[in-house]
């Protein structure tokens, strides 16, 4: 086969005349170009390392300092106060150099030391500036003099507490006796074991770059033994109202090309860091393992493996796995060429190998059986080579035979099916261990499924936003819906991976599929696209959109379950090096007081006052979480230390075992400049979602789009008689309307909120 010949650099045969060496010119060219490409990347990385190594100065500033020092010397002044002369005396080669040359070398050495000292001083100043967080607690539109000075400076240079906050957070969820018991446990912990655990944690904080992140990745993600599918992985959706092309292969061609353009920018360190208030940079550490990464199963704990730039992807279609190279002769294939290769896979009628079709179910089931099967059946031979190919690929692609999106006469139901397909598919047609997998449906729709251990949703969302925008607004399609450009028909065909699956392994695949299918069947999902109003109207009420949505969720949950629950909202902590997330406990005494007042029919003015208090409290908690003053990651790390020391803490054990029955997360739009919400409002993503955290709870992801839309992704389990995703979605919709009616400046209520709600329903 032609592909096999291209895979080796040379061939030889033994003849009567000796050894006949036949060099493969194309293979050697590929090796040469691969080496050139590798050295180019090394040079770019070296250049970036030099630039970042001297930050906040620049390499050119060294030359400026040297010239300035030399200029002062020629004016017969000594800015070094005798240090240049001292350096000149101790030059090891002073005998072989002229006096003038010695003076120049000494001045250059002094200039370099001065330059390094200036860099060190500027870094200390910048560190102190970025440690200032008071700006986050000030109202929008109002800025103190201190904060103004701080912003200008940044742009120019570029335990008792935890326990008390915890007790405050559980007060609305406990009665008096339960609260008194938890207070006693907390007091005992503070006065005894807590101080000892805190000492170890302080020691780690001095030694490690981040005292939370490594343990968070290890114990929350990698040591989890339950399936990744639904429980850990999350998804992102395509545009809601448009499909750029109905041709499956063309959509794949453009977006796969866009993914690799993003990787190129990432490797060249051209991705701009996310700035808060256009001044404070957030840590970009999580971006490092975006591509060429896979989670590897283990019996006790998994690991995350990251390789250097792969020049191929792995594509799954109708039970077969294909290796598709996206580089040819050192260049990235054009979108039209990738479409051509994808179409070749779609047209391939070869059957899957025995046991191959549902092999991916191993990544969807429990981790220990997968780890054991991997060690026993994929440790050598053809199976190891094919598995290595999948795990080392840049990312994973699924060509799905189904059609998804807003379809038919029931677009809401079709959106729900779309979400479930992205989250779990058929339970065997995704590779859930890959850092991310991209799904292309038969009608041109697409979506992404991401593994959670290596990064959080905003990182994947950044990649997804870039890919969607590049696909439609930069690359585009021709009149027939195909990718633009020409095709080199001599491209080698995608290579089908081979497998030798033993009957024992097939049995394990079947068992894993049974586990995964039960999990998928139990998942109840609803996508609520709320278009009645958005953040524009909320802001006119002088309320934070996030606080508004969180209060609506509290109201909806209370109406749905007639009680309050421990509520999780994810907040990013990327203001700190290697920071990931912290928990905002959204159910507070203030929010529960507001909900009770509203449901109890209190006067509208009273409800508005309580709402303002609750939303301000929520914003305060969010700011505390972002600035490292949250409580849950601190308590988690104290618990880990206690386990290392082999000591038991009744307080920590109870805190860490509390269920999050309402788990929420907002994914912000990060690259607004990539989309034109005015002229092309239809080109908006529907956001993404995740599965429920508790068996008897809800998972709610929301995506605030422009000024007039909020998308909710609601998940729960059919097996729980107390949860229903569609009913909860209806409660969310009703709560949003009730809150905006309460807060709208033009609203005039007669006396009671209950009466106004009745009038509002009649108007609808």
TrEMBL record:
The active site consists of 452 (proton acceptor)
Instruction: Look up the record and name the pathway of this protein.
Output: Lipid metabolism; fatty acid beta-oxidation
Q: Which UniProt keywords apply?
A: Acyltransferase, Fatty acid metabolism, Lipid metabolism, Membrane, Mitochondrion, Transferase, Transmembrane, Transmembrane helix, Transport
Which Gene Ontology molecular-function terms are recorded?
carnitine O-palmitoyltransferase activity
Q: Which gene encodes it?
A: LOC118287970
What is catalyzed by this enzyme? (R)-carnitine + hexadecanoyl-CoA = O-hexadecanoyl-(R)-carnitine + CoA
Q: What is any one of the record's Gene Ontology cellular component terms?
A: mitochondrial outer membrane
Q: Name one GO biological process term.
A: carnitine metabolic process
In Swiss-Prot or TrEMBL terms, this protein is called carnitine O-palmitoyltransferase
Give the organism's phylogenetic lineage. Answer: Eukaryota, Metazoa, Chordata, Craniata, Vertebrata
Membrane-spanning intervals of the chain: 50-74, 103-126, 147-167
